[in-house]
Amino acid sequence: MRSLLIVGAHPDDETFFAAGTIAKYAEAGVRVGVVCATRGERGATADLCSIEELPGVREQELRNAASILGVKDLYFFAYEDQKLLAASIQEVRVQLVQIIRETRPQIVITFDPNGANQHPDHLAISRFASDAIAAAADRRWYPEVGSAHTIERLLWTPPKLLFRLAPDADLNNEPGIDFLIDVSSWREKKEAALRAYRTQLPGLGKLFFEDPNGRRTFSQEAFRLAWGRRPETLPAGDLFET
């Protein structure tokens, strides 16, 4: 069975850059998992809850979005928003290795080493994901959490996010866009998943619904190849393309 794992830092990270891709592959029968390292407790509340209630609210928002998109496996870690860089790499590693060995993905998607926008939690989860992927492939690491598994590709967010590119940008010749996924048929699911994040909707709405350049991501999503087999044609239209 084909399997895809998204490794993010906050509720809404997965929807922000990969909602259409998740929906597309989930509908095609791919097992899709999402890891969320924090509950985003330092985010906005949009006056919908107290700051004390926010972690639980944001967790439920992610659960709602995941249900819309067809995510099969959802994992929450207990780290604090904006403090992920301080987490024990040994502790994070064993959790991620166990998930990788349980779900056995061909493809893992996470933030690039720049964290997409230099958010410290994004930087941290990118580093943690790369570390765990290497460890998961080595049977000497944590044999008690499953047999070794080597993924086929690690994908990152592209160096320039689609809504930051000029409207007339030639995406086929843009370096770092190695996979360009047509998600136009899953536009409604992406919109619904974004709207599931009610506490974050004022910011997400401006970016995705009000900005014409942001709305382009309802038709296309892009990823950069970190390592693994490079497709013969770039950008490829299928994450699993050989």
Please describe the biggest sheet, giving its number of strands, its sense, and whether it closes into a barrel.
7 strands, mixed
Determine the structural class based on helices, strands and strand pairing.
alpha/beta
Q: Which geometry do the CA atoms define?
A: globular
> What is the top-level CATH class?
Alpha Beta
> Roughly how many Å apart are the termini?
16 Å
Beta-strand segment tally: 7
Provide the domain count.
1
Which CATH-level-2 architecture? 3-Layer(aba) Sandwich
Radius of gyration: 17 Å
Topology order in helix (H) and strand (E) letters:
EHEHEHEHHEEHHHE
The CATH superfamily title: LmbE-like
Strand order of the largest sheet: 3-2-1-4-5-7-6
Tally the helices.
8
- Spans with pLDDT under 50 lasting ≥5 residues? none
Put the structure in a nutshell.
38% of the residues lie in helices and 17% in strands. With 242 residues, it is α/β, with parallel strands linked by helices.
Write a structural description.
The chain is an alpha/beta fold and 242 residues long. The protein has a single domain, classed as LmbE-like (Rossmann fold), CATH 3.40.50.10320. The protein is 38% helix and 17% strand. Strands 3-2-1-4-5-7-6 form a seven-stranded mixed beta sheet, with helices on both faces. Strand 2, helix 2 and strand 3 form a beta-alpha-beta unit. The two termini are 16 Å apart.
